[in-house]
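#onboarding

Welcome to the new folks! Below is a worked example of what a typical request in this channel looks like: someone posts a single protein sequence, and someone else replies with the predicted structure as tokens. Don't worry about understanding the tokens yet, we'll cover that in week two.

Example request:
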Amino acid sequence: MLYIVLVLVLAALGLLVTALITASSLWAWVSIGLSVLAGLLLVADWLRRRRRSAAPPAPAAAPATPAVSPPEAEVPEAPESPAEEEQTTLIPAAGDLGDPADTPDAPEPEPAEEADASAETETKPDSDPGVEETPEADVAVLADLEDEVVVVDEHPRYHLGTCPWLGTRDTIPIGVGEARQLGFTPCDRCRPDATLVAAHR
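Example response:
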């Protein structure tokens, strides 16, 4: 339908151009007639679609299914707890009690305080030492120094080569000023800042 309307509109446009060129009113009237016909076809198509969309589709009758109630779940009987059975067998009758000396003593549990104390005394071998507190005046001096310190990969402190914390760890030599610029902090065991500043004063 829309294709027919499009053809009619194009034909009316062509006839209108012809009427303007030839100055003939006949072609103008034919162009107007084709335009009216195209408009009527559009209105008819719109009404037909509106009727089709307004009519509700016939609902399909759903087969009635009887409501079936779910079967009641059977609650299994709780078996007797084995702990209760053991308790009844382990407790002797009042007349069957033997000599208290024959019964073995229960082992005494270790005190929790001793366990906590032993856990506190253990130290992790990979734990980092503390940070050395450096005065602001020493920080300014250290920024200009190129003395070599060492760092350990994935650890935030820099150390002197003789630091006892290093042990057998792999070290990387680096200038102290560069180490501070990269964000490393001084170790409080070997105190590299105080040692290097004292050596340059």
